[in-house]
Design goal:
The relative contact order is 0.14. The chain has one domain. It starts with 21 loop residues before the first helix and ends with a helix. The chain is elongated. The chain is built from two helices and no strands. By secondary structure, it is an all-alpha fold.
Length: 84
């Protein structure tokens, strides 16, 4: 991640342990994302087994993991930026 925002100068680098709470947001985002992927896969291809839907959803989810990681940190920072 960058050290500071190029627009407002907000400092992204924080003290050790600051982003620990972002893990909870990341977990929630991961559950929602994987649930949506699996549900859409099952809805679009109902003739296939749930195991096949899982086999299709997992690689798609793994591609999205870096995006979820980044956005969980961004959401965590926004919570503190606007709350305090």
């Amino acid at each position: 991640m960058k050290e500071r925002c190029t627009r407002c100068g907000h400092q992204f680098v924080r003290e050790p342990g600051y982003f620990q709470g972002a893990m909870y947001l990341s977990y929630a985002l991961a559950l929602i994302t994987f649930s949506i992927l699996a549900t859409v896969t099952i809805a679009l291809l109902p003739s296939h087994s749930p195991g096949w839907a899982l086999a299709v959803s997992v690689p798609a989810f793994l591609v999205l993991v870096p995006v979820l990681f980044r956005y969980s940190r961004i959401l965590w920072m926004h919570l503190f930026y606007y709350a305090f």
